[in-house]
Structures are given as C-alpha cells and as structure tokens.
C-alpha cells in the first residue's frame, strides 16, 4: 500500500505504536504531522520521518484541550494544504483498585482516551467533509469488549471510543469519510508495557500463555492493520473495530 500525496496526522506519535504508525506512513509516501505533549519525542519522530525523504512536522499539544487540538489540525492543513488521514493513537491509563482511584485519575483517563479522541475527530472532520474524503482510525482496546479488575476508568474510556467510532461512522459516511478502530492486544514497544512497570506480572504471564499465536504483539502487527483501514482497500469498511490480539479475545478470559 502506498500513500503518496496523502497527508496524515498521528496523535500520540512521539513514541511506541504511535511513532511506528507515523514512520510507516512516511515510508509509504505520506506527509506526516505528529502530535503529542512531549516536544523532544515528536521532534525525534518527525526527524526520522524526514530521513525517509518525506515532509514531517512536530505539533506540541495536549489532546485533552480542544483549542490545542484545533490548532494542531489547522497547522497541518496550513502546512500541507489538507488533511486526509487521522490516526488517534494517543492514550494512557492508571491501574489500581477502583475504590482508590482519585477524581483526577478517572477524569484524566477519560479525557485522554475518549474526550481527546472526539476532539481530534471533530476537528479533522471539519476539514474532511468539504473535500468529501477522509480516513479516521481510532485506538480502541480489548477492554472495549471485555473487562479486567482495577481498570474501570480505562475500560470505560475505551468502551466509549468504540461507540464513538460507530456513531461518527454512520454520521460521516455520507461525506466520504470512514471511521474505524483498531483494538490491539498486548504489544511490546521500546518501553515496558504499563503492566510490566514493576517487573513481569503474573497477570501478563497468564495473558501471554493464553494467546493462541504464542506471543505478545509487535508494533508492526498493529501498524499493518492501521495502514489497511486508512487505505482505499477499506472503502467499504465503516464503524468497525479490527481486533489485533493474536486470537486472545476469541480464546477467552485469563
């Protein structure tokens, strides 16, 4: 798949899967805008994309604030002339007993994963609708479909992302915009998975043992799914969540 002359904005593109997505689009000919809070990280991603021979810009901002999201997307359009593809990879979560979760933690998780995703979708669609073409790929989760203990805020947010994706898909399909989601399983990136911060957990070992393909995911596994949904091969796919988990969800609970 090639994305020559396409313009892509990736939120959460400073590291991890977001960075891998941004670089994959650059490798395939797209101009890329990278949006995240940490300047050093997004500048590094943009530099790596430029090294591949493509134009890339870093956009510093917090997805929880609509004015910053709006400015980032306006800057993308001002720089490249349009926005074709939005990938919402920004996210994060806190773990812990629900009775101990603070108001700030709960709101922060919802705002980062769900509210911010809506802000980015809304701002992108305002530019895509007049052109009658666009691709939006949101990041859902296995917790959009099932639940684990001590993840109430994150599961609530990602369940919301799934329903947001469906709602926007049926509203914007008439404008030539498809909205879909990726639901990754456990994926190893250059930093530890949040569940490994205190060392490999019993939970993570149990999850890996139940993955039918026999391993945790790699960023490339998710990237290829994103590229497909963003391509013209996915013209007739809207409002769907593509689960990329090595078969874990189908196999059952840990």
Q: What percent strand?
A: 5-15%
Strand order of the largest sheet: 3-2-1-4-5-6-7
Task: Tally the beta strands.
Answer: 7
Radius of gyration: 17 Å
Helical fraction: 40-55%
**What is the terminal separation in angstroms?**
36 Å
Mean pLDDT: 92
| Secondary-structure-derived class | alpha/beta
Helix run count: 8
The succession of helices and strands, N to C, reads: EHEHEHEHEHEHHEH
Shape by Cα distribution: globular
Query: Main β-sheet, in a few words?
Result: 7 strands, parallel
- Low-pLDDT runs of 5+ residues are 192-198
Your description of this structure?
The chain has a seven-stranded parallel sheet with strand order 3-2-1-4-5-6-7, sandwiched between helices. It has 254 residues and is of the alpha/beta class. It starts with 6 loop residues before the first strand and ends with a helix. Helix 3 runs parallel beside helix 4. It has helices at residues 16-27, 39-51, 66-80, 103-131, 152-172, 202-209, 219-230, 248-251, and strands at residues 7-11, 31-36, 56-60, 85-88, 134-139, 177-184, 241-244.
Secondary-structure map:
Elements: E1 7-11, H1 16-27, E2 31-36, H2 39-51, E3 56-60, H3 66-80, E4 85-88, H4 103-131, E5 134-139, H5 152-172, E6 177-184, H6 202-209, H7 219-230, E7 241-244, H8 248-251
Parallel strand pairs: 1-2, 1-4, 2-3, 4-5, 5-6, 6-7
